[in-house]
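Researcher: Dear colleague, please comment on this protein.
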Amino acid sequence: MWSGRPNAVVVDELADLKPGSAFDAGAGEGGDALWLAGRGWKVTAADLSAVALERAADAAAQREVSVDWRRVDLTRDPVPGSYDLVTASYLHLPTERRSRLFARLAAAVAPGGTLLIVGHHPSDADSGVHRPDLADIGWTAEDLAQSLPSGWVVDTCATRARTEHGADGDECTVHDAVLRAHRES
C-alpha cells in the first residue's frame, strides 16, 4: 500500500544525527525504520499490523538490513526499552489516546536523545485529501511541544506544507505538524 520510502520529514530532520539505538512507533511497512537501519541505526520498529510488519521484514531482507520488528499495541503496552531516537510518523489516534502514547514515547527517549513526531495538521480537514476525522486526530506541533515535561529542548516546532494528490487526483497542498526535541543529558 505504501511506497516503502522514508517520510521526507524524517530524512530532513534526522539525516545529520549520529546513529545509535532507535525506536520507530507505528512503523507500518517500514520505510522510516529501513532508512534508519541503512544509515547504521540499531532499530526496533513496532506496529499493530502483522501484515505490515511481514511486508517490512521482507523489505529488510531484500535490502539486507537488520530491524527488530515487533507487533505491539503501544496504546496499551509500554515502549520496550530506552532509545537514542524515538520517532513516530502519522499515528492516527483520538486525542486522549494520542496524548498518553506521546507521553510514553517521550519517556522512552534516553538522556541526550531525540524525539521526532510528525502528524497531519488539523488545517488539512478541507485540503481535498481524504483524512480521517482531523478534528479528533490532528494536532499542532505547538500543542505537542507544550505537553513535554521539563528537561526537554524543542529543536523544531513547525507546520510544513507539501504537495499530495487529492481524492480527485489533482495536486493539493497539505500540512504536516513537526516536533523534534531532545532530552537534556
User: Anything to note?
Assistant: The chain has one domain: 20-183. The chain has six helices and seven strands. The two ends are 39 Å apart (CA to CA). The helical segments are 8-14, 31-38, 50-63, 95-107, 134-137, 141-147.
